[in-house]
Design goal:
It catalyses: 4-amino-2-methyl-5-(phosphooxymethyl)pyrimidine + ATP = 4-amino-2-methyl-5-(diphosphooxymethyl)pyrimidine + ADP; 4-amino-5-hydroxymethyl-2-methylpyrimidine + ATP = 4-amino-2-methyl-5-(phosphooxymethyl)pyrimidine + ADP + H(+). Pathway: Cofactor biosynthesis; thiamine diphosphate biosynthesis; 4-amino-2-methyl-5-diphosphomethylpyrimidine from 5-amino-1-(5-phospho-D-ribosyl)imidazole: step 3/3. With 286 residues, the chain is of the alpha/beta class. It is built from 9 helices and 11 strands. The strands form 2 sheets. A 9-stranded mixed beta sheet has the order 5-4-3-6-7-8-9-10-11, with helices on both faces. α1 runs parallel beside α7, α2 runs parallel beside α3 and α5 crosses α6. The structure holds adenosine-5'-diphosphate (ADP) and the ligand Cc1ncc(COP(=O)(O)OP(=O)(O)O)c(N)n1. The site of adenosine-5'-diphosphate has 19 residues, from α7 and α8.
């Protein structure tokens, strides 16, 4: 961490795809890192043409150019934590894996992005093996329920017990800590838990918010976890702080006025900070 005016600032690199509508991917990660007082950096693995309603197209850069971006950052800057999101192609996933083996930042979080909530593929099927290899290099992996099913080969979990069982299987097979997420359950609460091969290590839960502003929640949570792990040194404490923040960010997402044409809007990553700091950026009152 760098020391700035007595503060320790985590330098956090997001390796992910771009969402031009600003709610998911690199754009969500940078806002989430900033909301947790980190210095955010971004290596772009894919360009998507998407908005709050769905993905219209994906454009992948050559894998060599992803390596060039990664090296440009790590040759110059000490990376305290890395968050890996959408990888798109097998070539890009392999390039990220090769860099990770060479550089290995102290904290590595992988959000195994495969399919968006709108149902669009963000990882080509041929890249799934490369993604599995990457997971074994991570400290924490953060699959949602469909991603857990893809990783374990099981049917999608419908109960929290099934979620935890699948997360334990991933933890065992990849020797990694798993953040199991209950966002996709048909339940009145939304449990999230850190799961090792031995079982649940820490759980948080709260009532399910009646909200449409859930685009990019997985991206925002995983980059918050990467940043907070550097600051707190503890995964359970990172989970507690990240989910408390995320719930508030979901609750106030609608006030952004983004996604009001029938889509899933983004969360409000930074509004709480502005309120807490007494900053009044909006010309609401004369
Ligand atoms: N309606 C909701 N109310 C409260 N928390 C939610 C809601 N939907 C998702 N979350 C939270 O958002 C985070 C991401 O969860 P999830 O939707 O399962 O993953 P993903 O965004 O990767 O599909 C989790 O912390 C989950 O508990
Ligand atoms: C560029 C990009 N990366 C990841 C996602 C998926 O975002 P996620 O946080 O899993 O949430 P949903 O958008 O699927 O709800 C994405 N859409 N775009």
């Amino acid at each position: 961490m760098s020391a700035l005016h007595g503060r320790k600032v985590p330098r956090v690199l997001s390796i992910a795809g771009s969402d031009p509508s600003g709610g998911a991917g690199i754009q969500a990660d940078l806002k989430s890192i900033a909301a947790h007082c980190g210095y955010g950096m971004a290596v772009i693995t894919a360009l998507t043409a998407q908005n709050t309603q769905g993905v219209r197209g994906v454009h992948a850069p050559p894998a060599e150019f992803v390596t060039q971006q990664l090296d440009a950052v790590s040759d110059d800057i000490a990376v305290d934590a890395v968050k890996i999101g959408m990888l798109g192609t097998a070539g890009v996933a392999d390039a990220v894996g090769a860099w990770l083996r060479r550089v290995r930042p102290p904290v590595v979080v992988i959000d195994p992005v495969m399919i968006s909530t709108s149902g669009d593929r963000l990882l080509e099927p041929a890249a799934e093996a490369a993604l599995r290899d990457l997971i074994s290099l991570a400290d924490l992996v953060t699959p949602n329920i469909p991603e857990l099913a893809a990783l374990t080969g099981a049917a999608e979990a419908v109960t929290w017990t099934e979620v935890v069982a699948q997360a334990r299987q991933v933890a065992h097979e990849h020797d990694v800590l798993v953040l199991a997420k209950g966002g996709h359950l048909m339940a009145s609460d939304t449990p999230d838990a850190l799961v090792s091969a031995a079982g649940e290590e820490a759980r948080v839960s709260g009532p399910r918010l009646v909200a449409t502003s859930t685009h990019g929640t997985g991206c925002s949570l995983s980059s918050a976890m990467a940043t907070l792990r550097v600051t707190t040194g503890s995964w359970p404490e990172s989970l507690r702080r990240a989910t408390t923040w995320l719930r508030a960010a979901i609750a106030r997402g609608e006030s952004l006025g983004v996604g009001s044409r029938g889509g899933h809007g983004p969360v409000d990553h930074l509004g709480m900070l502005w309120d807490a700091a007494g900053v009044k950026p909006y010309a609401l009152e004369a």
